Amino acid sequence: MRDVNPEYVERLMEFINASPFAMEHNFKVEEMRPGYARVVAEPDGRFLNPTGGLHGGYYASLVDTATGYATFLLHTEDVGTITLDVNVTYAKPFKTGKIIAEGNVIKEGTKVDMSECVIRDEEGRLLASGSSNLMIIPGVQIMEDCVVESGRPPMPPKFLD
After folding, report:
1. For residues 83 and 71, is the Cβ–Cβ distance under 8 A?
2. pLDDT, tens digit (0-9, with 9 covering 90-100), for 21-46
3. Quick one: 1 exposed, middle or buried, by C-beta within 10 A (0-12, 13-18, 19+)?
4. Which of 73, 75, 71, 76 is nearest to 134 (CA)?
5. Residues 6+ apart with CB under 8 A from 155
6. Which residues contact 9 (CB under 8 A, 6 or more apart)?
């Protein structure tokens, strides 16, 4: 496996965390390495369902985010991934506060990567778990293109040579 450029990872996390989706949903990707991503979120009252608990769709978004970015650093710059499915199992009700989602790749494939995610509260209690399969597609959803289209300077090389 090639060594990932730390400067690339830092700039990538800045780009992700400045996105409207991340800012609107109060989450930040705090760590990324090949096969792993950690997302810390602080959902507020806007994300509660009518019964007062955190909406299941919020958990699904975290699973999708953590598993997607866990997969991202495994592939070359010219490859994008597309979520095929997201499955979430809820373990405990939660209202507001800080939660941590950790995504791990469990099988790296040539066409599909399989990933899993565990979501816990600050005390380490399990709130939800999930899984996702991501299709690997050369030439589609290339991060460099997204960065440049947003008006930011080009990214440094993804891998150290």
Report:
1. no
2. 999 999 999 999 999 999 999 999 99
3. exposed
4. 71
5. 8, 11, 12, 143, 144, 147
6. 32, 33, 73
Residue 161, pLDDT score: 81
- Contact criterion met (CB below 8 Å) for 16 and 38: no
Alpha helices in the chain (DSSP H): 6-17, 20-24, 56-72, 143-149
Token representation of residue 96:
């507001």
- Tell whether pTM > 0.85: yes
**73 vs 21, 34, 36, 43, 59, CA distance in Å?**
20, 5, 9, 26, 22
> 72: which 2 tokens?
């991202």
Cβ proximity of 132 and 82 under 8 Å: no
Give me the DSSP letters along 37-50: EEEEE---GGGB-T
From CA 4, how far away is CA 10, in angstroms rounded? Answer: 11
3-state secondary structure of 81: strand
Q: What is the pLDDT of residues 134-143, one digit of tens each?
A: 999 999 889 9
- Token pair listed for 100: 């941590």
